[in-house]
Amino acid sequence: MKIAVLAGGVGGAKFLRGLRHHLTTIHPDGDGGHTDEVTAIVNTGDDVWLTGLKVCPDLDSIMYSLAGANDEVRGWGRAGESERVSAELTAFGVGWPWFTLGDLDLGTHIARSHHLREGVSLTEATARIQARWPAIGVRLLPVTDADVPTFVAVEENGMQTQIHFEEWWVKHRAALTAEAFVQRGIEASGITDEARDAILSADVVLIAPSNPVVSIGTILGIPGVSDALAATEAPVVGVSPIIEGSAVRGMAAACLTAIGVGTTAEAVGLHYGSRADGGILDAWLVDKEDADAVPALHAAGIRSRAVPLWMLDDATSGVLAAVALETARDISA
User: Which domain holds residue 190?
Assistant: First the structure.
């Protein structure tokens, strides 16, 4: 079975780990992996060039998590990190002192930047870096090879300005009211051939419970992504990142408010819309506490199920992934 997953950040990483756990259980290959082909199409809007290095937060967070190399306490970066290089950069007055990159993490960024400067694409650079951990079991693809950094329109010190998403997210912790999110260069970008092929050849397409605006929304804004989702014969099943009116993780509420969408599972599902009406969803999973959203979603042409969505560990995430695949099979039947 070929499975394509649109994903970003920690929510995407947890869901992919659960999916891998489920597939390893039902379709083991004898070497601790699985026989299915899983491709993650990952948000690149958070990416930034910093101190001469290409930093890809979502690609790296997902890669480290799948490799078992992530810092489970902080929720980001590598386990067992030191931060001597970042301290030196701060002493030199270089970079962002509030955006601390660990020494092991910097190794990833140096390797990626080296490959890019050799002239290879971000897709190829990602494949070379992923080879560092051959047992990941998921193919990681950036949605685009172009630079499409997300900037946030805010009012700062009485003036209208745009700041990089990471500054708004990490430095200001989303305390500055976001008026809009702007992906610079997105009009001239495009979905990679590899990401398009993964969607078109998939048996199932899953939308991970990632930020609907700056992760999934950015992916959908890349020219060619929506067309591929409309053209694929695979059912498209999404998982809500909102439970009982709250974002499971991060600051999705502030992002949704900026685009005029309510912080509810129903509102996000309706925002994505039914594929039959030009949206992206065939089905939408909401938490059992949001079961009252199901009738409105059905009325909008989106099949919906209320199931437990909390991803407490790989086992519970695996159960959720299994439900998503079961829902896709029901659509295809």
Answer: 1-45+144-333
